[in-house]
Amino acid sequence: MEAPLYPDFPPVPSDPNGAQPAFWVGPRHLAGDDGRLYDTVADTLGGLGWTSLTIVRGRSDPDEASEDRQVLRSTVLHISPDTLRWAQWVLADEPFRLGDLPIAWQVSARADTSSSLAQWSAYFTPDVPGEALAGFLVALDARARPAMPLAGPELVLDAVAAHGWLRDIDQPQAGATDPTFSSHVSLGEVPPLIQDVDPHTLTAEPDEPGPAGWQAWSEPALGAPYLWAVSFGASVPHDLVAAFADCLSSTAPVLRRVLPEATRERLLRAPAS
């Protein structure tokens, strides 16, 4: 749930649309998506020259009884010019959940155009800061070969450590957390249903660990519901995850009009004008 930054204050009088005033807030990993996760990503991809398609399923007949009407669902698909990478807005479909949160964006890439199967996929829930997902997509777009690994996992941990995050005490080579222990990145077993070309994803026995991929999440308080969650398949290149982690952990403030209820009291705020 999100709330205006200052619900007791009236909208800015000069704003004819009655919009809430904007503020610079931080840290960004607790700042939510401003209720604009679709718009932020769509604008980024549009600026990169990706093509967007809207897929509508179901039908609506006004003469049908209400109990017989099908539910109309739409998925927006964005495809890169070389068709090697794509992003889907799947919130309406709720294909599955991460940390008990619905999936909002699924991003995938393939090695070449001869295969219709994704080499890897990454999944993002609502309230992931749009700046972090945009950073991931810009890095993905800049890659000539989006499925080829170019660096090791240390790159991800170096990215967050540069912004003051702390290495996990028990697994310093596989995890880190922000100084308030609210948000985390961890290299561990990939959750079920994450699409990946790694054959071990399908062949692992029930009693053995599956392939490892980067996971990220924010838990504002111990035992509290997650604010957001992200899952990167085992084959997502580490340098792309590092681009996400770098933007996520950045100390630069972000512009917001609404904030998550769970974290609004923990954020620093300054008027944008």
Features of this protein?
single chain; ten-stranded antiparallel beta sheet; three-stranded antiparallel beta sheet; 18% helix; alpha+beta
Could you list the spans in which at least 5 consecutive residues all have pLDDT below 50? 5-16
Portion in beta strands: 25-35%
Number of strands: 17
As a whole number of angstroms, the C-alpha radius of gyration is: 20 Å
User: Quaternary arrangement of the chains shown?
Assistant: single chain
Query: What structural class is derived from the secondary structure elements?
Result: alpha+beta
How widely separated are the two ends? Answer: 26 Å
Helical residues, percent: 10-25%
Describe what is shown at a glance.
The chain is an alpha+beta fold and 273 residues long. Residues 5-16 have low confidence and may be disordered. It contains 5 helices and 17 strands.
Describe what this molecule looks like in 3D.
- This protein has 273 residues and is an alpha+beta fold.
- Helix content is 18%, strand content 27%.
- It has 5 helices and 17 strands.
- A 10-stranded antiparallel sheet has the order 3-4-5-8-9-14-13-12-11-10, covered by helices on one side. It has a 3-stranded antiparallel sheet with strand order 15-2-17, with no helix packed on it. Strands 1-16 form a two-stranded antiparallel sheet.
- A hairpin with a 5-residue loop joins strand 4 and strand 5 (85-89).
- The protein starts with a strand and ends with a strand.
- Residues 5-16 have low confidence and may be disordered.
